[in-house]
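Before a colleague's protein record goes any further, I have to sign it off. Would you go through it and say whether the fold makes sense for this chain? Take the sequence as given and treat only the tokens as open to question. The record follows directly below this note.
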Amino acid sequence: MARGRSAGYDDQRDMILDHAALLFANRGYSATSMNQVAEACGFSKALLYHYYRDKYSLLVSIAENHVSRLEDLVADVESLGLAPAARLRELIRRFVQEYAGAKHAHRVLTEDVKFLEDGDRERVLDTQRTVVSGFARAVAELRPELQEGALAKPLTMLLFGMINWMFIWMRPDGELDYDSMAPVVADLFLGGLPAVQLPQRVTALEG
């Protein structure tokens, strides 16, 4: 009879992913070895292989787990039935909170997805597209004409740019924390959204 997994098996796997994400984010995926991951976890290399078969499986798990959590956040916010502006604010708030605790995983996702094999990469990117679409729907409901001008998604990507870059320049010990910055991002985006004009080529075609 096969031996069952210990009660803490999943917790150990999550802990390993946290350490691996930190190493990948700081050293780069290619420059990180399984020996280094094992050392960071306080494991022998043999014990590490009990949880993950190789470094590539760590990368896949980090990327998939991160985008899946983001996808779940979008679905959860959409289930609340909020008006578009309130929904977008809540999405921004939750994503800033999530990124604050998963900035290493997010850096791995943005910088190391190129190391994924085609099938794994496409699966991760499909989930990312679902996440982006959730934001873009709220933008399009606020300004329907932007969807017609193919601007809802580009504006969404600009919004993600604000959120993503926050974790590059913000100091953890600074005067502002992530919770206080989330409404600032929402105010800046929603305040500027009404001023966005359709590109001239779009208005010319409509005319």
